[in-house]
Amino acid sequence: MKTLTSRRIACLSGAALVGSLALSACGSDNNASGSAAPGASSSGSSAKADCAKGTLNGEGSTAQQNAIEEVISAFQDACEGATVNYNPTGSGAGIKQFTAGQVDFAGSDSALKTEMKDGVVEQAAADKTCGSPAWNLPMVTGPIAVAYKLNGVDKLILTPDVIAKVFLGQIITWNDPAIAKINPGVTLPGTAIKVFFRSDESGTTENFTKYLHGAAPKVWTADPAKKWTGKGEGKEKTAGVAGAVKSTEGGITYSEWSAAKDNGLSMAQVDNGAGPVELTGEAAGKAVAAAKQVGEGNNIKLSLDYTTKQAGAYPIVLVTYEIVCSKGKDPAKVALTQAFLKQFSSPEQQKALETIGYAPLPTDVAAKVSTAINALS
Amino acid sequence: MSSVTGASAVDHTPNPHGESPLGGDRASTGRLGDRVFGGAATGAGLLVIAIVTLIAVFLLSQAIPSLARDNASFLTSTEWTVAGGNPRFGIANLLWTTVASSIIAMLIAVPLGVGVALFITQYAPRWLSRTAASLVDLLAAVPSIVYGLWGAFVFGPHITGVQSAISSVLGWIPFFSNDTGKVDSSGTIFFIGIVLSIMILPIVTALSREVFAQTPATHKEAALALGATRWEMIRTAVLPFGRPGVISASMLGLGRALGETVAVAIILSTLANGTAWSFSVFNGGETFASKIANNAGEFDSPQKTGAFIAAGLVLFVLTFIVNAIARIVIERRKAFTE
Questions:
Q1: Is A128 helix (H, G, I), strand (E, B) or coil?
Q2: Is residue A362 part of a domain?
Q3: Would B162 be classed as within a structural domain?
Q4: How many separate domains does chain A show?
């Protein structure tokens, strides 16, 4: 995991420096022509996965990078002649490339927006490029951990209001009465709370602030955004914030589950009103299962209920989507897309992703996704 | 590097025919080689000018629409809200962080680099000077991401003590005050200045070394013959001769420090929105380059992209001004070098 993280830093920094050219040097070859081999179709080999030949290019969210790399490697092992490239440049860049027709699918931390933002309606623009509706398909859910480092405090319970106040700099010491009240029996030191946030614009920040805005609307009044609007000290990317907390006594941050686990940080249990919930794949899955579907038909957009009081649901969750054209222009490519997404959403694959810090899709969402994948044409 | 050797008054005295001695008669033999080489050289010169002009045009064309929509003062505002219907952004913070970190880097790297160069050319025995020179050059080959990771994870944890020591003694000077209270890790302007100084050290050293090695032996021997000690010889012969070169080297290093991206993005802590302005170097911040790098993944609208490119434009102009000042200084010094 360590190497993965540092490779990601290297890749992204390279990208920042020299632009997308550098990215092809960071991983799989991205210059392969976009066209699939002629005559390929779902030839359904004896292996478990449906297979198709050709090359599929995707770009977007860094939050799902580790997951998709895992899936790509499993898919390419199972399917000879199939190549999938994923360029982790960020959700915004992925959607932009998809809308420009440069990639076959985009990975994004949020579904395509249907309202006007900076002069563009993402959904409409994507539909136009596709010539058919573009679908958002949830593929991975990543819980966001509230990670901290405080010697002698292994178990800490936080409520949405307290989390929001901590990240707004309104609670500045660990033994503040507000924290002590919800943690009876825990000896809290008087250490200053040092908040670290993501200095780059990130989907993790957006989803974390969505949660704070949804669950503690009175305290967190700022609109959710990719850019941090609270207080604290900014560090670059997930590796930066996790590393900073690891080396700072009294530090606290929000980060992907995997990063918090890898760095051995303590993770707070979140109490939304139905008792404290520890972060587990199952607990995060429960929150996703409680989400409302807002897109129509096979366009599966999930609206998470951040105030969920369901027992045992961990509410701070990020859902990442793959965005695809519902009607592809190239039949061979459609077959390949279907095969790849089937692999991605298969229960075994989803289970495997849990070991690297993602939570599997709940079964009823997975069933809807599966229907949508089969409906791609 | 024509400026390095300097030019004397003799070089400008016309000969009896009224021609400048260095000017030549610009005659061509008309041979093919002459014409091809002349054309190629002219072409190369024009190409550089064209590239710089095109970069400027690109930056301007991308930046102007966003600048026109900016509702805050671009040069003096410290806000940075670039998306949405009411964009308010300014570069005051970025400019300060960029300039302050580069100045710290220069304050450390230039004296050190000149010292190393003097040691290598004037003091060290031959076997040592060759080894030392190639070792210093090796520093230039280390990618900046390595400096960044090393700074953040290895060097960083040791610097916080130094920082608090300085601020407790010199805290009454605004530059060293510790009243910011926002940055608790090593990600300060002061620290990134130190890391940058290591990054530009090989540039300053390598160029200075070359220039010092060019000092005419006659100058040095003359100084020694007049009874100068070795240090006096260096002060009266080597340093004045090498000064334009050292200035060029420093400017080259400054250019790298101003534009350094990856190491800064990794090490420097950014500040939250609405943090009060502070002159302290023990504060965090973002430089032009690190700000653009941090946000490049999410350039989702032309307005946003344009705002960042506008910041890039300022860096471009800043570098241009620095180089222009360096040129002027070198030109003015020329006459006194021999």
A1: helix
A2: yes
A3: yes
A4: 2
Mark whether A24 and A148 lie in a shared domain: no
Task: Judge whether A292 lies within some domain.
Answer: no
Alpha carbon of B234 to those of B127, B133, B248: distances in Å?
Answer: 21, 19, 19
**pLDDT greater than 80 at residue B7:** no
Kindly report, residue by residue over B84-123, the tens digit of the pLDDT. 778 888 898 899 999 999 999 999 999 999 999 999 999 9
- Per the structure, the complete domain to which residue A161 belongs is given by 144-287
Task: Find residues 251-280 of chain B whose CB sits inside 8 Å of chain A.
Answer: 261-262, 265-266, 269-273, 275
pLDDT digits (tens, 9 = 90+) for A166-197: 999 899 899 999 999 999 888 899 888 999 99
Cβ neighbours of residue A317 under 8 Å, at least 6 residues apart? A141, A142, A143, A144, A207, A284, A287, A288, A304, A359
| Interchain CB distance below 8 Å, B303 and A235 | no
Q: What is the CATH number of the domain that holds A359?
A: 3.40.190.10
Asked if the C-beta of A20 comes within 8 angstroms of chain B's C-beta atoms, the answer is: no
CB pairs under 8 A between A and B: 122
Around Cβ B120, how many Cβ atoms within 10 Å?
Answer: 22
Residue B12 CB neighbours (<10 A): 12
Last residue in a domain, options A231, A264, A287: A287
User: Is position A304 within any domain?
Assistant: no
pLDDT confidence tier of residue A4, bands split at 50, 70 and 90: very low
ipTM: 0.72
